[in-house]
Design a protein that fits this description.
With about 130 residues, the chain is an alpha+beta fold. The chain has one domain: Nucleoside Triphosphate Pyrophosphohydrolase (Alpha-Beta Complex), CATH 3.90.79. Helix content is about 20%, strand content about 45%. It is built from two helices and seven strands. A hairpin with a 2-residue loop joins strand 1 and strand 2. The longest helix has 13 residues. The termini are far apart. The mean pLDDT is about 95.
């Protein structure tokens, strides 16, 4: 089984977090934290910054590693490095997703998270204290 290595941004705005609904592919309509595949020689943090610039057209900073999730899907093994961060500049102009929502702790489970992202939300919940 092939391994896919990705980075995800848990973008914070105060006490809210950005969730994105996939608009394409095998997992269309599922909810995730935005991000994407690492390029050769790229760190998770570098991929996170690049992917958010490409997908959302904003710059992020203040990256802090939250967790690394591993999940077996039917056709591949996912390794996902997850970073909390904030928007440093720009206004979100999403080019990849069907929908986006800002969710607070009381509503974090209001969307249908993809299986690997469920593990991220569980890790994120531990920071809500």
């Amino acid at each position: 089984m092939k391994t896919v290595h990705v980075a995800a941004a848990i973008i914070k705005d105060g006490k809210k977090f950005l969730a994105a609904q996939r608009g394409y592919g095998e997992f269309k309509d599922g909810w995730e934290f935005p991000g994407g595949k690492l390029e050769p020689g790229e760190t998770g943090a570098e991929a996170c910054v690049r992917e958010i610039e490409e997908e959302l057209h904003v710059a992020i900073d203040g990256l802090e590693h939250l967790c690394t999730v591993e999940h077996d899907y039917d056709t591949f093994h996912l390794v996902m490095e997850c970073f909390t961060c904030k928007i440093a500049s720009g206004k979100i102009n999403d080019s990849e997703h069907e929908n986006m929502k800002w969710l607070d702790a009381d509503h974090i489970w209001d969307v249908d998270w993809l299986p690997a992202d469920v593990k991220v939300v569980e890790a994120l919940e531990k920071t809500f204290a």
